[in-house]
Specification:
The structure is a homodimer. Chain A has one domain (2-188): Rossmann fold, CATH 3.40.50. In chain A, helix 3 crosses helix 4. In chain A, the strands form 2 sheets. An 8-stranded mixed β-sheet of chain A has the order 6-7-5-4-8-9-10-11, with helices on both faces. The first copy, chain A, has a two-stranded antiparallel sheet with strand order 1-2. Chain A has helices at 2-11, 23-27, 32-46, 62-72, 131-143, 161-166; strands at 13-16, 19-21, 29-30, 53-57, 76-82, 91-98, 103-110, 119-127, 146-156, 172-182, 185-188. The N and C termini of chain A lie close together (9 Å). In chain A, a hairpin with a 2-residue loop joins strand 10 (172-182) and strand 11. By secondary structure, the first copy, chain A, is α/β, with parallel strands linked by helices. Strand 3 of chain A pairs antiparallel with strand 5 of chain B.
C-alpha cells in the first residue's frame, strides 16, 4: 500500500537493521483517519471470506483491528498479556517468548468469546518473527475455531514470521513489506 | 447515556460491590459500532473546546479514545505502562499505584508527542479512584500542556475519582455514572 510505504519512509526511524520505530502514527501517537484507511484495507482483503471475529493482541494491534472489525461488521477480541498464570477454567493461556524484546508473557483469552463456529481474522501492527501470531493460533486451536488469516500493517520480510505462518497454512496479508533497512533507507518488496 | 446504561444492565457482571466486568463489549470483546457511538458522544461533549490531542492509557481506553480522536479530527497518544524505569531524556514517566489491582506501573510517554501548546482530552474506559488519570495529569503538567477534561465510559461514582480530579480543576464527563451495585442490580445516577 503506497500511502503506508510513503509514511514509513517519511516518519519511520530505523534504529538498527531489524528495528523500525513508527511511534509517530502507529504505536505511540496514532493518526486515527490514516489508521482507518489501513484497517479498511485489511478488511477489504478478507471481505467475503466468512470472518466472524477479528482478534488482536494488546496494545498496538488494537487500533487497526478495531477499524478492520468495524468495516467487516464483526466484534473484535483483544488477547491480553498476563505476567502470571490464571488458574481459571474459563480462561485459555499460552506462553509467548518475544525474542525482539527479550521478554515473555502469557497470552490470555476468555474462552467464551471464541466458539468452534468462529472464523477468525488476526490483525496486528507488525509481523517479524511471528511469535505473537503463533501464540494466538495456539489459543484459537484450543477453541476449535478456524482462521481466515493474518493481516498486518508492516511485515519485516527479512524475518521468518511469514514462512512460519504460511507453513501452517495461514494466509498472510501485509500492507507494507520491508525487504531490508539500513542507513541508506528502507527498501520495500512489491 | 441511556444506550450504555441499558447495555451495562444487560451484560455487566457485578463481581462485588465495587467490581463490574464489562468484558463482553468494552474490555476484552469490543463491539466496534457501539464503541464508535460512545467515542463520538465523548467527542461531542468536548467539541469546540480547542482539543488538540486525545490521550489515553493502554489498553482498554484505546478503543473509545480512537473514535473520540477521529471525531475531533486530532491525533491520539497512548501512554504506555512500563515495569522499569527508562533512563532516557526524551521520555517522561510517573508511578501509578492501582489499589483495585494491587499493582503499580510506570506511566510512560515520549516527550515529543505533547508540547506546551497542546490542549489535551483524556479518555479512558473507567473512572474509579482516579489513579491512572491523576498519573496522566502529572505527565501532562511536566510538558506544560493544558487539559480540556477527562471523558470516560463508566464512572463508579461511589469511589473518589471524580472528587479528586474536580478538586484539581479538571472537568469530568462520564457516559454512565454508577451510584451503587449489589445483588439487587446496578443503580445509575442521573
Amino acid at each position: 500500500m503506497k500511502a503506508l510505504e510513503d509514511r514509513i519512509q517519511q516518519e519511520g526511524l530505523v534504529l538498527s537493521p531489524s528495528i523500525l520505530k513508527v511511534d509517530s502514527f502507529i504505536n505511540h501517537q496514532v493518526d486515527p483517519a490514516f489508521m482507518q484507511l489501513l484497517g479498511r484495507e485489511i478488511a477489504r482483503h478478507f471481505q467475503g471470506k466468512g470472518v466472524t471475529k477479528v482478534m488482536t493482541i494488546e496494545s498496538s494491534g488494537i487500533a487497526p483491528a478495531l477499524f478492520a472489525a468495524m468495516e467487516l461488521g464483526v466484534p473484535m477480541v483483544i488477547l491480553k498479556k498476563q505476567n502470571s498464570e490464571l488458574l481459571k477454567t474459563d480462561v485459555l493461556q499460552t506462553e509467548v517468548v518475544s525474542y525482539t524484546k527479550e521478554t515473555s508473557y502469557l497470552l490470555t483469552m476468555a474462552r467464551k468469546y471464541i466458539s468452534d463456529e468462529d472464523h477468525i481474522l488476526l490483525v496486528d501492527d507488525f509481523l517479524a518473527n511471528g511469535e505473537a501470531a503463533t501464540g494466538a493460533l495456539r489459543l484459537i486451536r484450543k477453541t476449535h475455531a478456524t482462521v481466515a488469516g493474518l493481516g498486518v500493517l508492516i511485515e519485516k520480510a527479512f524475518q521468518p514470521g511469514r514462512a512460519k505462518l504460511e507453513g501452517q497454512g495461514i494466509s498472510v496479508f501485509a500492507l507494507a513489506r520491508i525487504g531490508s533497512m539500513d542507513e541508506s533507507g528502507i527498501h520495500f518488496l512489491p
